[in-house]
Amino acid sequence: MRRVYLDHSATTPVRKEVYQAMIPYLTEKFGNPSSVHWFGREIRKDVDEARERVANALNAESKEIYFTSGGTEADNIAILGTAYALQDKGKHLITSAIEHHASLDACKALEKQGFEITVLPVDEHGMVNPADLEAALREDTILVTIMHANNEVGTVQPIQEMASIAHQHGVRFHVDAVQSVGSLPVDVQDFGVDLLSISGHKIYGPKGVGALYVAKGTKLANISHGGAQERNLRPGTENVPGIIGLATALELAVKEQQETYQHLVPLRDKLIQGLTAFPDVTLNGHPEHRLPGNVNVSISRVEGEALILSLDMAGIAVSSGSACTSGSLDPSHVLMAMGLDHQTAHGSLRLTLGKSTTEEDIDYVLSVVPGIIERLRKMSPVKKNRED
Question: Does the global pTM surpass 0.85?
Fold first, then answer.
C-alpha cells in the first residue's frame, strides 16, 4: 500500500543532518553543561554555540535566546512570566480566538488568578483585524499574544502591524511562531516583537526542545524553580542533544526556506483545487495569506473522524485539526471562531505538506478522496434527514 504523510503541522521527521549532529551528545559528549570540569565545560561551549546559531537564524543576539522543552513551555514562560513581572502595572492581556491552546490555556489560568483577558475575534478567514487590537488596548494592558500563522487553517497574521500598534501604547508583544518559522521569513527585528516562541519538531528537528526569544531589557518572572540554568529563567538540566538538533534544524530550515516555499506552494494549490472541485467542499483559512504547506477544508455531510480513519486505511495520514486536541470530541475552536457551525466544523480535514511531499502523493490523495467522500455521504444521517 502506498503511504502518504500529510500531517507535517503535527510533527516532522528528524532530518539526517540533524540526527548526525545529535549523535555525539547521546554518546561520548555526555557531560552536564553546569559541571565545572572539562566534561561540562566542553558541553557548555557547544550549548553556547548552539544558542548563537539560533540567534543568528532569528536575527537576534545570543543572550536573547532561552532554550525550553518546546513551543508550549516557551508560550507559557512568555505569557505567565510577563503577567507576573508586570502585574503591578496592570492585569489586562489581549489574545485572539484562534490561538494554540498553549497560549489560550495560559491566559485562562491567569484569569483564575485575577487577570483579565480580552479575546479578539477573527473574520471568516481566521484573520485578526489590527483595528480590533487597537480598540482593545487599555491603560492596564501589559501583553498582547498573537500567533504568526495558525496551526489548523494556516492563516498568516499581520504581525508587524499589530506589534507596532501594541508598542505605540507601551505594551509588550509576544508571537507564537511555532508553525511559521522555516516556512516563512521570521526575523525578530523585522517583526518588532518582544517575545517569540519556536519548536524543534515542526522544522525537522527533535521533539522535546524549543526556544524563546526575549528582547534585551524585557523582564520576565520565573514560572518554575529549581536551578540556575538558562540564566535562571528555565531551571533544569539542559536537553543538550535536543539543543544541538534544534540549532541544526533551524539553520537548515532558514537556509532552505525559499526553496521549500517554492516546492510546497504549487503542490498545496493543486491539492486545494482538486479537493474544492468536489461538491460541497470548501477551503478554510485565508486563500492567499496562508502557510505554504497548509490545506484545510470542510466537507459537508461527512464526519471528520470517519474521513480520517478511511484515509488512514488507504495509507494517507492527515488530521482534523491540532494534534494537541486530537483526543477531544469538541469541534475545532479555530473553525468555530471563524463562524462555522458545529456540523461543518466536525467535517473539517487538515492536510499539511512537507519537504518529502511529491506531486505523485497529491495525485494519489485526489484519486482516493472522492470515493471516500461519496461512500461516507451515502451513510450520512444528515443526508437521510434531508431526504426525509
Answer: yes
